[in-house]
Write a structure and sequence with these properties.
It is built from 5 helices and 13 strands. The protein is α/β, with parallel strands linked by helices. The strands form 3 sheets. The chain has a 6-stranded mixed beta sheet with strand order 4-3-2-1-10-11, covered by helices on one side. The protein has a 5-stranded mixed beta sheet with strand order 5-6-7-9-8, covered by helices on one side.
Length: 247
């Protein structure tokens, strides 16, 4: 207990882009989360790629299927569900590819097929919000994000200016932070890194960083964000404890 009341811990991760996730980085993050046993977990968008139904040019040698993405994602949900009380999946622009595909190719199925049903999200107690949706974690707004600027922290600033409140986003695949003080107090904005491979087929040596965040929140809404980079794809340093994945 603190003067502000009970403190709850949340873990927020995003941009896994299954099946282009990094198994090593994701594995050590999951180990850390399962040890931490947070109150809440937020998968903040672009957890899956929906690669085969995207509008972009695709590698004909890639053997990925939507069923494979479903299998890997539901396995992740099963691993995370037992260690948390409140669980959310906020859609990103990549999850939104399914909606666009159905609306374009099979609009008759729009009332029958949707993302949370196809990925069995409710089976593991996760709740869903479509792309553009947001969640309040105390006074911190969490949403996937829709803008990308050139340097780390710049996109965080753009989202703070757009939404007018402290905010944590994914989307950029970078770790970064921006702070601002006005007459209402101090506001912060964070870019939450990624857990995908750092060598995508569509870019060369992108300026991305693997990582995730642990957010502690008091019942008065005050919060603290700790960004945890994944070092060398296999190490997470949290407090005095170091988690090692397979090298």
């Amino acid at each position: 207990m603190t003067k502000g009341g009970l403190v709850k811990t949340w873990v927020i991760m995003n941009d896994l882009q299954i099946p282009f996730h990094d198994p090593k980085a994701l594995g050590v993050v999951v180990d850390c989360v399962r040890d931490l046993k947070p109150h809440g977990i937020v998968l903040n968008g672009d957890v899956v790629d929906c690669y085969t139904i995207s509008r972009f040019s695709k590698n004909p040698l890639c053997q990925s299927t939507l069923n494979q993405e479903i299998r890997i994602a539901t396995g992740l949900l099963r691993r995370l569900a037992p260690v948390s009380t409140e669980r959310w999946w906020l859609g990103g622009n990549l999850e939104d590819r399914l909606r666009k595909y159905i609306w374009d190719k099979a609009p008759e199925l729009a009332t029958e097929v949707n993302f949370p049903k196809l990925f069995h999200i409710e089976d593991e107690g996760f709740r869903w919000k479509d792309y553009g949706g947001s969640l309040r974690v105390g006074n911190l707004l969490v949403t996937h994000g829709s803008m990308v600027n050139k340097h780390s922290g710049w996109t965080a600033r753009s989202h703070l200016e757009k939404y007018g409140t402290s905010i944590l986003i994914g989307h950029t695949h970078r770790l970064g932070a921006f702070f601002k003080r006005d007459y209402k107090g101090i506001h912060g904005a964070w870019e939450n890194g990624c857990l995908c491979l750092l060598s995508p087929e569509y870019d060369q040596f992108p300026n991305w960083q693997q990582g995730f965040s642990v957010v502690t929140v008091g019942d008065n809404g005050l919060f603290s964000v700790q960004q945890l980079p994944v070092l060398n794809r296999t190490i997470v340093q949290f407090g005095i404890k170091q988690y090692h994945g397979r090298s």
